[in-house]
Write a structure and sequence with these properties.
Radius of gyration: 26 Å
Distance between the termini: 20 Å
Keywords: CBS domain
CATH architecture of one domain: Roll
Protein name: CBS domain-containing protein
Largest sheet: 7 strands, mixed
Organism: Micromonospora peucetia
InterPro entries: CBS_dom, CBS_dom_sf, Mg_transptr_MgtE_intracell_dom, MgtE_N_sf, MgtE_transporter, SH3_actinomycetes
GO molecular function, one term: magnesium ion transmembrane transporter activity
Number of helices: 16
Oligomer: single chain
Length: 428
């Protein structure tokens, strides 16, 4: 293996994994260490990599030819695509050790784990040899000193951890996309998952909740105090907030809605009134809406806003005032490709398209799917009986409701092909 003899494992989190041909096959998410019956440091046997479709697999160190903070390169051979499952005598280093409260001997100095290094012996065996520990200090204005000490000098690395912080684990997870972070949270024990989720800021937690199975959403929300839960719901898209609240008993729904700001709660209340499985129940009530006298340049500037999802930003809906749902009379929509072809000073009223009948709030999901597929659309308007725009159904809304209800659940994720190739050597 072409690699330094000491590797700090938190620095590997998120590093790309490449096959011998230079194609990326995944990203490192953790390291697996095997506990020993003696006091010797645990032996590192491999890495956990996340593959497409959120599957995590085991990569034996024996099959890795190069490892550093920029890339992990695999040697020739086939991969075992079975989903990784930790064995009873194994330790997930980053998940279980970062932020753990420990004491450094001989003086018993308290601190928390910032990173853990694996080292290679002359015989080629890798073990957890050193621990980066930050001292605990009572001063709020200064961080404690950082010490790198031998594994044997640190007490508290084994057994059930006491209540601990989240800063170092969050630092490892901070660059993940919301869907990947949601996937990582599902690997944590429930108490640790709730602890880490609560440490996220409201906007980040809202994005992550939208990517979790309903069961985990409800459990995380229940672990927050009600005021914080209401603030997180305010940061969610109204349709996602309505989906989450629909999993709660009606009295709890009412409490949280009452704690939300009225302008944030009102669209969620409205979405909760629609019959499940209809356009009203799956639509977003906040598509991009502009008046007919807005210019093409104004529309392009609007859809460039970074908080908009690709499906929402793919078109602009044109209606009479007011511009919030329910709007004035709906006039039509303009796709972003049309906007790119038109002079910036032209008005939207002159390029609007209205040759496709909008959906009604009561349109059932199968009909929505057929019509979006027929016209190759990523979004369709939803209007009420007074021809007012009340929302838009996007392709991601449709997919989310067409897939099995538990499709986000790691335990119910699709299994690898039964004929998947096997990896020689240790499995995880």
């Amino acid at each position: 293996m072409s690699t330094p003899t000491r590797v700090y494992l938190a620095r590997l989190a998120g590093v790309a994994v490449f096959d011998p041909n230079g194609d990326q096959v995944g990203r490192v998410r953790d390291a697996v260490a095997r506990l020993r019956p003696t006091q010797r440091p645990p032996e590192v046997v491999g890495l956990v990599a996340e593959m497409p479709m959120r599957r995590r697999i085991f990569l034996s160190l024996n099959r890795i030819t190069s490892i550093d903070s920029d890339a992990v390169v695999l040697g020739s051979g086939t991969l075992n695509l079975r989903r990784f499952e930790k064995r009873p005598n194994e330790l997930l280093v980053l998940q279980e050790l970062l932020d753990r409260r420990v004491q450094v001997e001989p003086v018993g100095q308290p601190g928390s784990v910032v990173d853990v290094a694996m080292e290679c012996s002359r015989g080629g065996e890798w073990s957890l040899a050193r621990v980066a520990v930050r001292e605990q200090t009572g001063r709020l204005t200064r961080r404690g000193h950082l010490h790198q000490v031998e594994w044997e000098r640190v007490r508290g690395l084994s057994g059930i951890a006491d209540s601990r912080g989240t800063a170092n684990l969050l630092a490892v997870l901070e660059d993940m996309r919301p869907a990947d972070l949601a996937n990582a949270l599902q690997d944590l024990p429930d108490a640790r998952r709730n602890e880490v989720a609560a440490a996220l800021d409201d906007e980040r937690l809202a994005d992550v909740l939208s990517e979790l199975p309903e069961r985990d959403q409800v459990e995380i929300l229940a672990a927050l105090d009600r005021q914080r839960a209401a603030e997180v719901l305010e940061e969610m898209d109204p349709d996602d907030a309505a989906d989450l609240l629909s999993e709660l008993p009606p009295p709890e729904q009412d409490v949280l809605l009452d704690l939300m700001q009225p302008d944030e709660a009102d669209p969620v209340r409205q979405l909760l009134k629609y019959t499940p499985g209809t356009a009203g129940s799956v639509m977003t009530s906040e598509p991009v809406i502009l008046p007919p006298d807005a210019t093409v340049a104004e529309a392009l500037a609007r859809i460039r806003e970074p908080q908009l999802s690709p499906a929402i930003a793919a078109q602009v809906f044109v209606s009479r005032a007011p511009m919030t749902t329910p709007t004035g009379r709906y006039l039509g929509m303009v796709h972003f490709q049309r906007l790119l072809r038109e002079p910036p000073a032209d008005l939207l009223g002159g390029v609007v398209v209205n040759d496709i009948d909008p959906l009604r709030p009561t349109t059932p999901l199968p009909e929505i799917t057929r019509r979006m597929a027929t016209y190759d659309l990523v979004s369709m308007p939803v209007i009420d009986r007074n021809n007012r725009l009340v929302g838009a159904v996007t392709v991601d809304d449709v997919l989310d409701h067409l897939l099995p209800r538990d499709w986000r659940d790691r335990d119910a994720a699709a299994r690898p092909p039964t004929a998947a190739p096997t990896l020689d050597g240790a499995d995880g």
